[in-house]
Amino acid sequence: MAFQWWRTNLAAAAALLLLRLYAGWKWTSAGWGKLTGDEAFSAGGFVQNAIANPVLRSGTNEALYPTYVSFLKHFVSPQMGLFSLLVSWGELLVGLSLLLGLFTTAGAFFGLVMNFSFLFAGALSLNPWLILIGFLILTGGRNAGRFGLDPLVLPRLAALRPGKARPSSAAASGTAS
Questions:
Q1: Would you kindly state where each structural domain of the chain is located, as residue ranges?
Q2: Model pTM above 0.70
Q3: What string of H, E and C letters represents the secondary structure of the chain?
């Protein structure tokens, strides 16, 4: 019952709007700062630190996420320029998605992916808070974008899907065949 309320109620949509605007501003400002800073952004220092100082199991010297550290070392490090761009543009696009309410649930999903990546690397900052907000937005479904561009854009995109029944030009113009 509460879940249905969260996904359909107008008051819940208003609460989701506030959460969206807060998270959207945080993501947008982080991405914009990386893209417009005096020096080109590089995730290299962050990644190298995550490799050299992985999150350890409590009371041991054993990495808690060894597969993630391996991913950083063998896949991300050799492609650092690409991943720096992905982080910068990803943060900006997630933020704009949430601020505008355009592809809202997709924006929330990709924000969660980035936040979990940062957590696996050992960065706390706002990540747990943004994960909670992202989860709330994601579970809000269409209601999360009710006060945004989703209601205008998503139905038009759905009408473009292949196999979707479209009125024929004769039927649309009112002429008989």
A1: 9-151
A2: yes
A3: CHHHHHHHCHHHHHHHHHHHHHHHHHHHHHHHHHHHCCCCCCCHHHHHHHHHCCCECCCCCCECCHHHHHHHHHHHHHHHHHHHHHHHHHHHHHHHHHHHCCCHHHHHHHHHHHHHHHHHCCCCCCHHHHHHHHHHHHHHHHHHHCCCCHHHHHHHHHHCCCCCCCCCHHHHHCCCC
